[in-house]
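Weekly modeling sync, notes
Attendees: S.R. (lead), two postdocs, one rotation student

Agenda item 3: backlog of single-chain predictions. S.R. asked that every request posted to the team notebook include the full sequence so nobody has to chase files. The rotation student volunteered to paste the first one in as an example of the format we agreed on. Action items at the bottom.

Example entry:
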Amino acid sequence: MDRRIRRARGIRALGAILAGVALSAAALTACAGGADESPAHPFGPPPEASPGIHAWAVGEAGGLLVTADGGATWSRQRFYLSQRGVDVAFTDVATGWLVTDGGTVLATTDGGADWAVVKQTDLAVKALAASSAACAWVVGSAAAAAGGDVATVLRTADGGATWRRTRFGMAQLTDVVFADDRHGLLLALDRIWSTTDGGRTWKLRTTLPMTVLTSVTMTDVRHAWVAGWDTQTGDPLVFTSRDGGVTWRALRLRVSPAGPGALQARQIAAAAGHLWVTCPAGVLASRDGGRSWELQQVPAGRPAAIAAADEAHVLATTETQPILASVDGGAVWLAFGRADFLERPLVAVAAVAGPAQ
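Predicted structure, as returned to the notebook:
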């Protein structure tokens, strides 16, 4: 009896020792692994879900990121080209266009689930605009036979079946936008053109020396805004037109000073009189058509591309990993992503408000 008792006690003691060793090993593993494992939300709490707010972002080779809940969650959609997306445009939740760094133009009619190549261009692509399933415009530069590059706009009015080419000499084109199938604006570093015939003809409307114009947006055929920065001071610039781009005036951006280059405008978005301009320091925003401005802070990253689904729902990419979203016009920005989420930064984003799912 005594031997059995002593043996049982010994087994219990050994079990306790082994359990303690196991717990210590688990603790050490947890501590060691904690340094390597990334937190679920390294950029803070993610955005709240906004069903029906669709967005598409490009920049990685062979695919794009898609959200149907305003940026609360993102998933990858693949296309078969091993090329990086340069720009993306959607006219509704189903109809979209995409251009790559290889000069390939693709189109979709199912929200990006499937893409079809509609054009292989010879352009170093800068930007893309679309107004419908039929009409799209691609901006870039093509190598000239005599050397150098020629600024070029390609346009299609039949869904990509045929394309027409317009040349702009040595201009350094940067962006293009269309409010409908006929009314559009074209941007170079220091010039703005407008068209009222779908891009068959363009009129040079203004030249702005000592500027770098980076982005243009329209909310209808009359109201437009252009963003850029002053090459002498580095200060942000925003110009507005109320006659479809025929005349332009500068808006005053009274915001607190920041470091050199911190406020240089990158891309502009607009919706219902609200404006947003990305810059390295955050997002410059106006709720009154540009009469007053504030610098909205973001939780992570340096904002780059931006798109507005409506006056409340705005999404932006950054130079690195986080994808930003706001459900209140930018009063509060939140970020989605993790340290290994993207292989390359996202360089363009499109957003559309559609039916809630």
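Discussion: group reviewed the output briefly. The radius of gyration is 26 Å.
Action items: rotation student to repeat for the remaining queue; S.R. to check formatting next week.
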